[in-house]
Amino acid sequence: MAIKDLKSFGAAMKDNPKLHPQSRQEIVDLYTKYIDGMYTKLPELFGRLPKGRLDVMPIEEFREKDASTHYLQGTPDGSRKAHVMVNTGDFAKRTKLEIETTAYHEGVPGHHLQIALAQELPELPKFRQQEYYTAYTEGWALYSERLGKEVGFFQNPYSYFGHLQDDMLRAIRLVVDTGFHYKHWSRQQVVDFFHDHSLIDEPEVQEETDRYMAWPAQALGYKIGQLEILKLRSYAKDQLGDRFDLRAFHDQVLTGGALPMDVLGDRIHEWTAKQKATVAVSGDARVAK
What we know:
Layout: H1 6-14, H2 24-39, H3 42-45, E1 54-58, E2 70-72, E3 82-86, H4 99-106, H5 111-119, H6 126-129, H7 134-150, H8 157-181, H9 187-197, H10 202-214, H11 218-240, H12 246-254, H13 261-288
Helix pairs in contact: 2-4, 4-7, 4-8, 7-11, 8-9, 8-11, 9-10, 11-13
């Protein structure tokens, strides 16, 4: 079958049984597989890791119609583990495309790594260990999806397409959230916009549409936070050159707990300046010898 455009590609995928889960359990198993695989790569990306692990569980069937896959944090004392709660409803109508990128977003190195680590930072007051800012927390999770590519994952091209499609989802959010709450779009206009600009499967389109209708501006915070973290990484790398350490940068982003983005910016700029000063002092010492 010739693939001429996005719609043709979507039709081909719809008819490809290999791209659709065959059971609820298969969805849970795939999330577990990708999260477990990412755990093996975390030491390449971070110097400080949380002790607490997480489990993958299906969302209860009575909630799945209105719930998206999400992260449920554990208790600070460890009495309840963290979970990625996965929507397995209407499994035959879903695709496997976005599972890998969502596993990195909701699990590691996304929400679980950031939130569990904050809970384990003794230098933070208890209320700061539980702090939440949408742009920071969701921006970090969105940024984390790209780390999967950096460490060699997304080997399946359909899975990588799912990652890129999720990027498109975040762009669509910027339009339809504004459409709902400023331009007074109808629910059907939002659904139609999703279908006109993506291959996102029907259950997710319906879930996301209801979400934006009920939660103005929340989804816009994702992209704001992600772009700011990417900008700060680029700044630190430009300033430090060959001395830039990605693991140290990530630790600086995470070990202050959740922060407003302007405060995070100040933190990274101060850290970068200290790193430059350390390099300069080390260079002067070598010259003196």
